[in-house]
User: What shape does this take?
Amino acid sequence: MSFNELYVRKSEGAAARSRRETRRRLIAAGTELFARRGLYGATSSEIARQAGVAAGTFYLHFKDKQELFREIVFAALAELRAREDAAAARAPDRLTELRARYHELLRFADENRNLVRVLFGRRHEAADLGEDVLDAILPGLEERLREGSGSARLHPGVAAQALAAMVSRVLAWWVEDPGRASRDEVVETLLRLHPLVRTLERAHPTEAEET
Amino acid sequence: MSFNELYVRKSEGAAARSRRETRRRLIAAGTELFARRGLYGATSSEIARQAGVAAGTFYLHFKDKQELFREIVFAALAELRAREDAAAARAPDRLTELRARYHELLRFADENRNLVRVLFGRRHEAADLGEDVLDAILPGLEERLREGSGSARLHPGVAAQALAAMVSRVLAWWVEDPGRASRDEVVETLLRLHPLVRTLERAHPTEAEET
Amino acid sequence: MSFNELYVRKSEGAAARSRRETRRRLIAAGTELFARRGLYGATSSEIARQAGVAAGTFYLHFKDKQELFREIVFAALAELRAREDAAAARAPDRLTELRARYHELLRFADENRNLVRVLFGRRHEAADLGEDVLDAILPGLEERLREGSGSARLHPGVAAQALAAMVSRVLAWWVEDPGRASRDEVVETLLRLHPLVRTLERAHPTEAEET
Amino acid sequence: MSFNELYVRKSEGAAARSRRETRRRLIAAGTELFARRGLYGATSSEIARQAGVAAGTFYLHFKDKQELFREIVFAALAELRAREDAAAARAPDRLTELRARYHELLRFADENRNLVRVLFGRRHEAADLGEDVLDAILPGLEERLREGSGSARLHPGVAAQALAAMVSRVLAWWVEDPGRASRDEVVETLLRLHPLVRTLERAHPTEAEET
DNA sequence: AATGAATGAGGGTTCATTCAT
DNA sequence: TATGAATGAACCCTCATTCAT
Assistant: This one.
């Protein structure tokens, strides 16, 4: 029995490993192809082929094309958020924190261009998914804006939409050709455009203004 | 001959009028259906049906689905621009001009919700088209930013992307439910977030700041 | 205008005629293939090919495979019923009427072997459809049995099921090879097995019994 | 050697027992799923899963899906026949025997509703199998009818088909909802409809007629 | 110019079956 | 003997587009 068990265990391990590897390759292939051709343009068969597996194998790992897409998007979002939070944790004040977040964001984008294209690029076919992604981001954004906006004439809902769009588009634009602007230029420009930085600038004019 | 000519002319006129009318209806139907279902979701046959013509007629007026889409998008853009310029012409200074432009933009959006959805809504399947649209808008934007940004730490390319994204998204968000914010709130928030207004504010702090 | 109308009319007529013809051929091909391979075994493409049209054309005429199947089955049922009723109308008494119905049924079956195979053959994949077909037949059957059964120990529901099964199977069996029994033999055997004929026989023993 | 032999035997015994158990569970799962979803609707993987084994295991026990289906059907048929014969053995005359057979049949059907659905229910996808099943039943039936029908105007082939269909359909109908008719009602109705009972009734009018 | 029936390539998806472990 | 990941053929169906009328 222990023999059998061992055999079974080993076998399961190999199978499971193979399965995970296949899944990983499907996700990688999906990320690239979705980025290149969009949700509609990419076909499940092509993704499978690029992953080096048969067409049917796709459906052993994902219920349908949408599911792979979701998976890719949310995994990316989660990683991004984690990295941003880690970068933010070390910041002494809010302006520094924001700058750190943006730097991290740019670094992440640079390392995951395909992902950025899928997430924020034109050809935003995320369809229903788009809702979910934004619903996951916007409320927090709005909240922070509401807290921080003070007496300013800023409508938090409007500002949240504006901010989210601004950042996501700049990102998508930048990864298309990072030579267009240095990381610092992008970060500093985004900072200047951030609704709350105006307030921060007032509080610490020397730091933000004197360049 | 002149008789015949007259007849032909008249006949051509009627045919041409009928043709133009068919085209107009196809564009109207396309606008609505693209807005409702997106570029991929809307089918050429459905557009034809909604326009009250046969499926094949579609292709007498447009090379393919993309062409109708282009047509709709650029016609809308042109009208929008004309109205904005008209509104801007009467402004005494740049802040007032910008405010007038935004107000006109919001009015236009309110009157053409479907168009806004097609142009800027999620499900931005404009695909290759998106490039063209933005290429048509962004250079001017960038130019103006370059002129106006003065010594500020703003990268014009980045800021142009940010601005375009900000405005287009806020528009798309607002037309989904105009009750979310008053027209004034939207305009004023967008103004506050505009890269150049910060500079303007500095120049004329009383006007923009004291509310 | 009358010219145009005429043209249009003629054109519509030709198109409509062509359409009807295509539909007719799809139905014919479907009847044969469903009979030969069953609902699952027959493929929409094969039906289209056999009808001499492209695969997609199938779906211009029928929502899906099931719909063609339904169409075939109910059209056949309707025709059968009409012919039976016509045959029955001339009968002076119930036994004669029933005999006439059975004779007409056999004649119909002989002329439409494929249809009989589809309707009653083994490989009864009519699935949900089967319900509808039987629901269309059984209630009337049961009603007549209830009226006619008199004091006999017959449960009308059971007898209705039995009768429907008996007739439909015999039909399917017979058309497989009509040489197995003469039309008269089939009719007379079915008559002898009919629940109500026993009663009738009792009433008029001479007519039904003395052979 | 005898030691070794013993060991091998014991080991084989355990393996064989396990194998038989797996097979038993596949058959049980197959019976249920074929009844619920039909031959096409049930998938080999689903049957394996319900049996608690891996997909591949299915094919260690059965050449293919059809084979399991055959197995189920013929095993059921054999059991049914055995029970019927046992019940019939105690009968003093043919009418009593037939009544006993029918009662046993109903009892069996009630206890094995899934089986009845597989065997005789609509969605008769037994396909080629159907032939075999009926070929196994009908000849005997026909023979008995030939013997018993005496001078009556009954074609034995026709009557055999009719009888088989009648009984199998009534069974399938009844197990769907046994509340539709009592066991006695079903049996008595079937008896009245049996080709030979007419003759029997003539012979023993008191028993069969006077109720 | 308009019609609308027809085309046919191509997509997503399923599932019976195989085979390395 | 059992596992279960993988295969890949096959199917249903959609729709942009063509073309005879």
Q: What stands out?
A: Chain A is about 80% helix and 0% strand.
